């Protein structure tokens, strides 16, 4: 298995291109199941999670062809569809559950294995099941699979989710686009990836209003057609790379980045002593004079501070002046990076959903292990701040969500290498 070796770094300088959003692309790709015409996604990220979704869609009868070195995905689903999403593929990635809504809408039935994904909590499917049941689906769990049926097709309905789940909102949007009549989703998630999916569905002929707010109205249509859609920039990749100059000093511009996608994160960076500026071409980040200051962080659904940047923010705060408290409100068990950061000399106490980080002067390089996607990149960031060498193993998590991380960081002067497994 590959590992990544990082050495403590001086100031960084240069530009890092931000890819299309993994989480947006993973929701956009299943939309191909909704139409028999081609869907083309441009600005796609080149990641193993995207290859897993490609494999899953192929097993269902869709074709996804990677063009221009994977930056363009040409998808189509005009032939026979197999409505069974098998455990062997679904277990690799939780976002596989995003085929449930489209399969139900197009076929009237679907059998989808319960998903796996990052080990960051229980991650049940009840909100998806309730939302699709509101549209008239009958769903039961048998042998680890959700068996869903919509006798006579899906019917528009008003439904309020008990929590603003991102995935359940996406499943509902796709399913309701082809349901008979009007649907209203209350307490909908407002993440930019949902707005991006709604844009794509509209380009395919769907009638959707209110995306980006907590009430989305969908007027079902008979059929959807083909479209070409550019994937929105990855706000989590953006936030991650913004932390590199925050940790090392210097100035880095994240090309294609948009502050409006991560305002809550940018406010915390500002409070910690990092300056952030929107330019015509991206987001420019540099560290203000002096040491990083402690800040408290609470993760929340959008527009709050994203849970997917909590681990990386913790890496920054390990060497801040003062004590920071990070509260995780989205996923239980999402502090698995804390013991690894502690191995590098960080002073962190975890109690339930809170982590208290007492800033230390410096971290020391150490062998550490990645436990999930965002945890693994937080260890790389911490390595940039540490004296000596940090070896991050189990980097397959990293390759699920970061395109050529070592090349992008190296290009701005970071001391980082991938060591291939022999
Ligand atoms: C998406 C993102 C993930 C991000 C998360 C929260 C993708 C592919 N992944 O995941 O990177 O961390 O949003 O911003 O877009 N829950 C239930 N029942 C359900 C569904 C969810 O209890 O049926 C709980 C989850 O266990 C979790 C919380 O709701 O505690 C948030 O989950 P959700 O918003 O659904 O996240 P995902 O769509 O899985």
From TrEMBL:
GO molecular function, one term: UDP-N-acetylglucosamine 1-carboxyvinyltransferase activity
Record EC number: 2.5.1.7
Residues recorded with modification 2-(S-cysteinyl)pyruvic acid O-phosphothioketal: 118
Pfam family, one: EPSP_synthase
Cellular component GO terms held in the UniProt record: cytoplasm
Leader sequence segment: none
Protein residues bound to phosphoenolpyruvate: 22-23
Pathway terms, separated by semicolons: Cell wall biogenesis; peptidoglycan biosynthesis
Catalytic activity: phosphoenolpyruvate + UDP-N-acetyl-alpha-D-glucosamine = UDP-N-acetyl-3-O-(1-carboxyvinyl)-alpha-D-glucosamine + phosphate
InterPro entries hit by this protein: Enolpyruvate_Tfrase_dom, Enolpyruvate_Tfrase_sf, MurA_subfamily, RNA3'P_cycl/enolpyr_Trfase_a/b, UDP_GlcNAc_COvinyl_MurA
Keyword list, A-Z: Cell cycle, Cell division, Cell shape, Cell wall biogenesis/degradation, Cytoplasm, Peptidoglycan synthesis, Pyruvate, Transferase
Biological process, per Gene Ontology: cell division; cell wall organization; peptidoglycan biosynthetic process; regulation of cell shape; UDP-N-acetylgalactosamine biosynthetic process
Domain Enolpyruvate transferase as annotated: residue spans: 7-409
Role summary: Cell wall formation. Adds enolpyruvyl to UDP-N-acetylglucosamine.
Protein name: UDP-N-acetylglucosamine 1-carboxyvinyltransferase
């Amino acid at each position: 298995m590959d590992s990544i070796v990082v050495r403590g770094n001086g100031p960084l300088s240069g530009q890092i291109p931000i890819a299309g959003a993994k989480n947006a692309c993973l929701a956009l790709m299943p939309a191909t199941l909704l139409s028999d015409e081609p869907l083309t996604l441009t600005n796609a990220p080149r990641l193993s999670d995207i290859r897993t979704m490609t494999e899953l869609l192929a097993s269902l009868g869709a074709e996804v062809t990677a063009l221009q070195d994977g930056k363009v995905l040409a998808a189509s689903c005009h032939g026979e569809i197999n409505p069974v999403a098998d455990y062997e593929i679904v277990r690799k990635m939780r976002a596989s559950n995003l085929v449930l809504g489209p399969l139900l809408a197009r076929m009237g039935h679907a059998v989808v294995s319960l998903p796996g994904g990052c080990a960051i909590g229980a991650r049940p499917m009840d909100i998806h099941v309730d939302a699709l049941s509101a549209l008239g689906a009958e769903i039961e769990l048998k042998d680890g699979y959700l068996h869903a049926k919509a006798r006579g097709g899906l019917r528009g309905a008003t439904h309020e989710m008990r929590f603003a789940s991102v995935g359940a909102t996406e499943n509902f949007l796709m399913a309701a686009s082809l349901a008979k009549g009007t649907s209203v989703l209350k307490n909908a998630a407002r993440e930019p990836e949902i707005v991006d999916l709604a844009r794509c569905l509209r380009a395919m002929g769907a009638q959707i209003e209110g995306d980006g707010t907590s009430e989305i109205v969908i007027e079902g249509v008979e059929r959807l057609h083909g479209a070409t859609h550019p994937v929105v920039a990855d706000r989590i990749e953006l936030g991650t790379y913004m932390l590199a100059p925050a940790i090392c000093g210097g100035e880095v511009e994240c090309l294609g980045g948009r502050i409006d996608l991560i305002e809550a994160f940018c406010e915390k960076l500002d409070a910690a002593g990092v300056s952030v500026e929107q330019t015509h071409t991206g987001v420019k980040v540099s560290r203000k004079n002096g040491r990083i200051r402690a800040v408290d962080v609470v993760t929340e659904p959008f527009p709050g501070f994203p849970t997917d940047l909590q681990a990386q923010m913790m890496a920054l705060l390990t060497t801040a002046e003062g004590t920071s408290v990070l509260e995780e409100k989205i996923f239980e068990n999402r502090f698995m990076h804390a013991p690894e950061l502690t191995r590098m000399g960080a002073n962190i106490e975890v109690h339930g959903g809170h982590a208290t980080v007492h800033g230390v002067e410096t971290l020391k390089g150490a062998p550490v292990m990645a436990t999930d996607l965002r945890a693994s990149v937080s260890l790389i960031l911490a390595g940039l701040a540490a004296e000596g060498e940090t070896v991050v193993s189990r980097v397959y998590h990293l390759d699920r969500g970061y395109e050529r991380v070592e090349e992008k960081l190296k290009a701005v002067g970071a001391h980082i290498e991938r060591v291939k497994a022999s």
